[in-house]
Design brief:
- The chain has 192 residues and is α/β, with parallel strands linked by helices.
- It has one domain (11-186): Class I glutamine amidotransferase (GATase) domain (Rossmann fold), CATH 3.40.50.880.
- The chain is built from seven helices and twelve strands.
- It has helices at residues 3-6, 26-38, 89-94, 98-108, 121-126, 142-147, 176-191; strands spanning 14-18, 22-25, 42-47, 52-57, 60-66, 69-70, 81-84, 114-117, 134-135, 151-152, 157-160, 167-170.
- The strands form three sheets. The chain has a seven-stranded mixed beta sheet, sandwiched between helices. It has a three-stranded mixed beta sheet with strand order 2-4-5. A two-stranded parallel sheet has the order 9-10.
- The longest helix has 16 residues, at 176-191.
- The two termini are 14 Å apart.
Length: 192
């Protein structure tokens, strides 16, 4: 897909980015966010609490970001896609939040795309949304994903279309260019 094809392809579409109050791998939030914005979409930051969330650069504190919507007040039907950034602590905290897990489960049961990178599939496991799906993640999650019924593969980006909606997964920050590009491509397909 050329730049002219992706330019403003998401105009009018709201894309949910769901994170915990802290522990988000910053680049896994900011790079897909930037790609959505550049394509004309409206990224919306959801979290389990109001205020700001603390991102990290690996184990070091990085920037904070203001929450747009508390997940308790969000409806999956308002968004064209769901992006789940990683970081070890972020998805671990999300999977203990009943409202976050419910939101992810409802989204995964819809026809709209879900995109998860690195450790983010932990939240999908908790939402019972990986059984029978082909996907990737940070390597340490492969046993968890297999135990939950997923087919884990070691690939840069995987798009599984066997469920209600497409599931896009990537392994790590180095995969972000492919992850973001694939997210935009899948959203363009869904829109046409």
């Amino acid at each position: 897909m050329t730049d002219s094809q992706t330019d403003k392809q998401l105009t009018g579409q709201k894309i949910a980015f769901l994170v915990a109050p802290e522990g988000i791998e910053q680049v896994e939030l900011t790079e897909p966010w930037k790609a959505v914005q550049e394509a004309g979409g409206q990224p919306v930051l959801l979290s389990t609490q109001q205020g700001s969330v603390q991102a990290f650069d690996h184990l070091d504190k990085a920037d904070t970001f203001e929450v747009d919507v508390v997940v308790d007040d969000a409806s999956p039907s308002e968004y064209a896609a769901l992006v789940l950034p990683g970081g070890v602590a972020n998805p671990d905290a999300l999977r203990t939040s009943r409202s976050a897990v419910s939101f992810v489960g409802q989204f995964a049961a819809s026809v709209r795309p879900v995109a998860a990178i690195c450790h983010a599939p932990w939240t999908l496991v908790e939402a019972d949304a990986v059984k029978g799906r082909r996907m990737t993640s940070w390597p340490s999650l492969q046993t968890d994903l297999r135990n939950a019924g997923a087919q884990w593969v070691d690939e840069e980006v995987v798009v599984d279309r066997t469920g209600p909606g497409p599931l896009i997964t990537s392994r790590k920050p180095d995969d972000l260019p492919a992850f973001s590009r694939t997210l935009l491509e899948v959203l363009a397909e869904a829109r046409s």
